[in-house]
Amino acid sequence: MDVKQFDVVTLFPPMFEAISQFGITRRAGEEGRYQLHLWNPRDFTDDNYRTIDDRPYGGGPGMVMLADPMEKAVQAAKQRQLANGVEKPKVIYMSPQGRHLTHAVVMELVSQSGLIFLAGRYEGVDERLVRRQVDDEISIGDYVLSGGELAAMVVIDAIVRQLPGVLGDADSAEQDSFVNGLLDYPHYTRPEIYQGEPVPEVLMSGNHAHIKKWRLKQALGRTWLRRPDLLAARQLTKEESGLLAAFQADHKQ
Ligand SMILES: NC(=O)c1ccc(N[C@@H]2CC[C@@H](O)C2)nc1
Known about the structure:
Blueprint: E1 4-9, H1 17-20, H2 23-30, E2 34-39, E3 53-54, E4 64-65, H3 67-83, E5 90-100, H4 103-110, E6 114-118, H5 127-133, E7 136-139, H6 149-161, H7 170-175, E8 193-194, E9 197-198, H8 208-226, H9 228-232, H10 238-252
Parallel strand pairs: 1-2, 1-6, 5-6, 5-7
Antiparallel strand pairs: 3-4, 8-9
Helix pairs in contact: 3-5, 4-6, 8-10
The site of the ligand NC(=O)c1ccc(N[C@@H]2CC[C@@H](O)C2)nc1 has 16 residues, from strand 5.
């Protein structure tokens, strides 16, 4: 098993306990499927105040992160990755100006052996740092966050789930939304009747062929209702077209 190497340059390393200390990403780390190393630019400053930001040239509100401490942190991260066998660490800057994170982008990143994430704060980082060090800029959506940390954790979480052996049975990764290009089907558990509402009877039948067909029909129908753009991008098999038509007929009644 090759160990995926993640490094993050961040002013707030403790934030990353959200992935290293909980759930699937905690277990995957403990099982050695990936390593996560955090670098605080403040540790790479050379003044008594450990300055990491300053006012923007050209005026305007807020502060901009200095290039030098960040660059030194990136270099330290690159050294660590190279020492851990990563041929060519890829540096990713999280920002609203980046390309949108999709399942396809996640799978592209899964194939990389080492990733170094830059998590900015304030108004952002000095553009010269981006030009000198950043290989890829990624956005998790069209909205502004207070820092790149949450965005970096989203990307790391999405990647870790796809690493071999991380999710229990392989098909749970397969059945995740977007893996098959469709939204997920609805899920039910005990009790069989909740507040008077029963579980769809097909799920109680024990007929696994019927259950599989019902789930695919629901996934197709939900995608049709909620994300027609995903449906348009997907070739449907004859069976799938039939199931969708049946869902649409049911839906119209
Ligand atoms: N949509 C996103 O992925 C995203 C990423 C980062 C971000 N904010 C940081 C703070 C300063 C600058 O580094 C960018 N907001 C939104």
